[in-house]
Amino acid sequence: MRARPALAALVLLLLAVPAAGAKSQLRVTFVGDSVPASLDYVPSARAVIRRGMSLTLDLKVCRRLVATSCPYKGKAPTTALQAVRSYGRSLGDVVIVDVGYNEDGRGYTEGIDEVMNAALSQGAKCVVWVTLRETRAVYRPANMAIRSAARRWPQLLVADWNSYSAGKPWFRKDGLHLTPAGADVLAGFLRGYVMQGSKLGG
Questions:
Q1: What are the residue ranges spanned by the domains of the chain?
Q2: pTM
């Protein structure tokens, strides 16, 4: 009879050990501003994008890429670069960046390089960079910088939200911030790029 507790303990131990060859869960960090922040309050969108992965949403109103962020309710959030650096080696396998609506694009090229250097040095395999909706001409320089950066960085995947969402009714009056239906679409759109990015450097 004494063998039963020992056998039970052995079974529990074996169940706790991952099977040989089992893959660890994909870890993803999403750094963005208020435009993708609808994922924070649309449960269906979160469910779409995070299925089968460990997802951290770091989405802040007024966030900028590397320049000091604008204040919101008396406090400026971290920049995208600061946010990425704050995670250290826990940043994850794939990083999504959707930032740029609170700036005019000056310094965006250099900012991309800073974020890429930080993310890759912290263990990320890929950065999925989302283009901005060009509802205003001021967003065009950032999109040009994103597309150009993909030629310098093979680990950067351009998620062309500007083209994909053109003419679609997924937005509030400003043409940028998303309705719940739009949040669902963005989540599905980005999920494909995340899965593609997870295969880079593997």
A1: 26-197
A2: 0.88
